[in-house]
Structures are given as structure tokens and as C-alpha cells.
Write a structure and sequence with these properties.
Order of helices and strands: EHEHHHEEHEHEHEHHEHH
Structural class: alpha/beta
Helix content: 40-55%
Largest sheet: 8 strands, mixed
Radius of gyration: 17 Å
Number of helices: 11
Length: 255
């Protein structure tokens, strides 16, 4: 039974998509079958980061509306073993009307993949509600900036109120400013503020935006950055899946 993990933050621009792409690659290198799903409706860019935007013919909404077969919408990432993407639609829409279809799809995908990684949209609106609705765990992604930490704390409170497991964070030093801020504050106060444990810290690496621009997020990173993502992937694998059961639903196998 595959584990569904959402990467969320509240604030945009803190590295959620970077984390989803590279942790997904890290898990695939551990010989796990990984599906990443972009839920940033209307503002998708996970496909761009992975360099496969030109290969998109169908997307998540097409699957939910049964306009295409599931396998037609899922794209394999050629630069890592067993890593796949289900892209988001480009048009803005409310996914809440597809709650039942989403439930059936996730139930089916759990039996096809070891991990399903969801790229959550920024904010705490309907997109956030949809992205966190059927997950086993939420991982906070933040920088050392006070605004990022403040928004992450709000998200943590919402998740706790809804009974959604949120025990870990990834701290991203995306810029030299974030590097300075994180070191000035220190990791322990961040963990205390957010009431989570640091899963891993991604060091500042000027190659991250370069790698994303050319669609190979992992291959061009510095050794310490690669090691950080691999270490996070290993920790996710080692801690195991949280027990989560869904009611019996019809299969998407024919789709």
C-alpha cells in the first residue's frame, strides 16, 4: 500500500516543487516506484522543473473527468528510474467538485506506487484543502525567513486541527539571504516554533535554479545538495508508511 505525502508551506516560493522533484528522484534511486502529482492548478511548474512540459498531452482533470486513460496522462521521467508525473491542468478551477473521483483515483494509485508525492499550491484556500484531504502525512517546506516560518506555523495549526499527521519539515536555503536568516535563528528554535522535527536542510546551491531551467533538477546539483535530498529520501523510506485505510471503491484500472 503506497504512502501519500503532501509537501506544503502556506507561503509560495519556498521550494516545495524543488523538494517534490528531488525527493522523488531520491526515492526512485532507492528502487521505489514514485508518482509525483502537481496540484498547483493553473500555475503548474513541476513539469517544467522535470523538463517534460513538451510531453504533456493530458492532465489530472482529464483523468478525473475520464476524458483519457490514466496511463495516457502519466509521464515517465527518463533521467531517474521509476519516477512518474501526473501534471496539473493549466486552467484555474475548483477541484472540490471532483472529491469522489479523487478518492477513487488515490485508492487505485496506492496499489500502483510505493510513494505518491503531492505538490501543494501556495496558500490555505480550496487548493490546499483538496491537496491535503487524503494524505498520510504532510511535510512542511520552509526557509529561514520569518514570513515563511510564520505561514508554515499557520499551516501546521490547520493540519493539526484536521488530524493530519505533520511531524517533519524540510528547510530550504534558496538564497544567500535565507542562508543568513536560518543560521541566525538556528534549527532548534525553528523546530520548537513549528513543533516539528527537521527532516533535512537543503544548503544554498546556485545550481538549483540552473538545473530547473534546463529540466534536470538533480543531475547538476552540488554534491552536498544531492546528499541532502538522498538523506531526506532515506529518512522517509526508513520511517515507513503511516497506516491509512480508504473504503472500498471502484478501480481506475480500466481508465
Amino acid at each position: 500500500m503506497g504512502e501519500v505525502i503532501v509537501f506544503t508551506s502556506g507561503k509560495g516560493g519556498v521550494g516545495k516543487t524543488t523538494a517534490v522533484a528531488n525527493v522523488g528522484i531520491g526515492l526512485s534511486l532507492l528502487e521505489k516506484r514514485i508518482l509525483t502529482i502537481d496540484l498547483d492548478i493553473g500555475l503548474r511548474n513541476l513539469d517544467v522543473v522535470l523538463g517534460i512540459e513538451q510531453r504533456i498531452q493530458y492532465h489530472l482533470l482529464d483523468v478525473l473527468e475520464q476524458k483519457c486513460a490514466l496511463h495516457q496522462a502519466i509521464i515517465r521521467y527518463k533521467n531517474a528510474p521509476n519516477l512518474y508525473l501526473l501534471p496539473a491542468p493549466c486552467n484555474m478551477l475548483q477541484l472540490s467538485r471532483y472529491k469522489d473521483q479523487w478518492c477513487r483515483l488515490i485508492a487505485y494509485l496506492r496499489n500502483q506506487y510505493d510513494y505518491i508525492l503531492l505538490d501543494c499550491p501556495a496558500g490555505i484556500g480550496p487548493g490546499f484543502d483538496f491537496a491535503t484531504s487524503l494524505v498520510d502525512e504532510a511535510i512542511l517546506v520552509t526557509t529561514g525567513g520569518i514570513a515563511s516560518l510564520h505561514d508554515a506555523r499557520k499551516v501546521k495549526d490547520i493540519l493539526d486541527y484536521r488530524g493530519i499527521c505533520c511531524e517533519h519539515m524540510i528547510m530550504h536555503e534558496e538564497t544567500k539571504r535565507h542562508l543568513f536568516e536560518s543560521r541566525r535563528m538556528g534549527i532548534a528554535p525553528m523546530e520548537e516554533l513549528l513543533e516539528v522535527t527537521l527532516l533535512g536542510k537543503i544548503p544554498y546551491d546556485e545550481n538549483i535554479p540552473i538545473s530547473q531551467n534546463i529540466g534536470i533538477p538533480y543531475l547538476n546539483l552540488k554534491r552536498k545538495t544531492k546528499e541532502a535530498f538522498i538523506d531526506i529520501a532515506k529518512k522517509i523510506y526508513q520511517k515507513g508508511a503511516v497506516s491509512y485505510e480508504l473504503p472500498a471503491v471502484e478501480s481506475y484500472a480500466r481508465s
